[in-house]
Each structure stands twice: as C-alpha cells, then as structure tokens.
Amino acid sequence: MSDFLVEEDGITDEEHQYLLMQMFFRGPMDKVREELRAVLDTIDVDQSVQSLPVWDIGCGRGELLEILNEAGFNAVGIDTSALMIRKLNELNLEARHGDAIDELRMAPDNSLCGITAFHVIEHMPFGTVTELLRLSYQKLAPGGFLLLETPNPFCFESLSFFYTDQTHVRPIQPYQLAFAVETTGFTDTRLHFTAPVPASRKQDTHNWMRLYQNHGIVAKKPLASASTLKKAA
C-alpha cells in the first residue's frame, strides 16, 4: 500500500500528514485486515437485508471495505478525506467524500444492511455519537447490523497513545457505548475486544479487559422494530 504515500495535487498538507500518522500508528494493513476479518466473521446477517448496502463510515485506508467486499456485501465507504477517497477509488473500491451525519440524514429510512465505523466515534463529541446512533437505527433496515470499534480506555497501552491523534475528542468506555447503543433501540448487542497488548508490554492486572487496546460492539435493529409494529397496529 505504498501508493498511499504518493503526493497528490489539490489535497491539503493536513490530509497528507494525517495519512502518514495513520500509517505509523494504526499498524500494518495486513494485520488490521486480519483483525477485521475475525470480527466480521462473527456477524450473522439476516438474508432479508443482505443485498442492501453496507456503509463503512470513516473508511480511511479501506481495510474494512475490502473485507466487506470479500464477504459478499455491497460496501460503500464514506470519509471526510478527499485524499483517502481518491486512493480508494483508484483501487476500485466504492467510496465517496462526505460527512457521516450529513450522508445518513439524506439516506432513505430502512435502506441499509449495515453501518460500520472503526475508530471514528472517538473523533466526535458524545452528542454527535448519540446522533450517529439515532440516525443509524433509522436508516438500517429491520434485521440490519451496526458494528463499531474504538480505543479501549480501560487499557493503559491504548489510553497512553490516545491523544497522539490530535483529532481525538474523548475516549468512550465499553459499557458507556453499550448503554448508548441499547437505549437507542438496538438489540442482540455483543462487545468485542481486539489488538491484545504485546506480552512484552503488558502491565500486571487482574482485569482481562485491560489487556486489549480496542473495544467494539455489534448490534442489530430488531426485525420487528417499534416503528414497524406501530404501523402494523
């Protein structure tokens, strides 16, 4: 993926700098793909929605877009970086430049199979996170899935590097995220943890949760959502 480092006209210096930072701190793309594939393999998608698009919000370098396409989904990336989008389009990945909240507001209700956002919500004020969850619930078809991941603040290794990214706003705890997801209306919620701390850098701890640098959640919009039941009544 060295092509990502080629200079492009019409792209801001800040975008180039941010991409370089991602290449340095996010880790090798092959390793990230392996972690993403393991998480995606645990998701059981209802056949009634499988043909609908899956939106990968903040698609970045495109690792998850590639994995979603491998799994047979109709994956579409959305990112605020014009540089990222240009690179992904050159790799024949479907992605467009835009703001996640604005794009979701314009999407038809019940039109998506899935919404994914890996290392995105920590860049948002918490009020924007709750708006993202509300819109995701509204735009997902009944039976559709939500998949999120973010740095784990219970892990010293992760928290110590959190503000290396100057665009990070605040860390979000696993139970805080689960509460926000479930009170939005999602069901079948399941936490997951990735990127175990290397053995050479582990701190003594009796809490296994602190041994993973990332945490995430998988949840579904119920097949019989509240709005569907109300219309049927």
UniProtKB/TrEMBL annotation:
* A Pfam family recorded for this sequence: Methyltransf_23
The protein's GO terms of the molecular function aspect are: methyltransferase activity
According to its UniProt entry, one GO biological process term is: methylation
Which domain of life does the protein's organism represent?
Bacteria
Q: Keywords assigned by UniProt?
A: Methyltransferase, Transferase
Q: What is its EC number?
A: 2.1.1.-
> PANTHER family, from UniProt?
TRANS-ACONITATE 2-METHYLTRANSFERASE-RELATED
Its protein name is Putative S-adenosylmethionine-dependent methyltransferase/MSMEI_2290
What organism is recorded for this protein?
A: Bremerella volcania
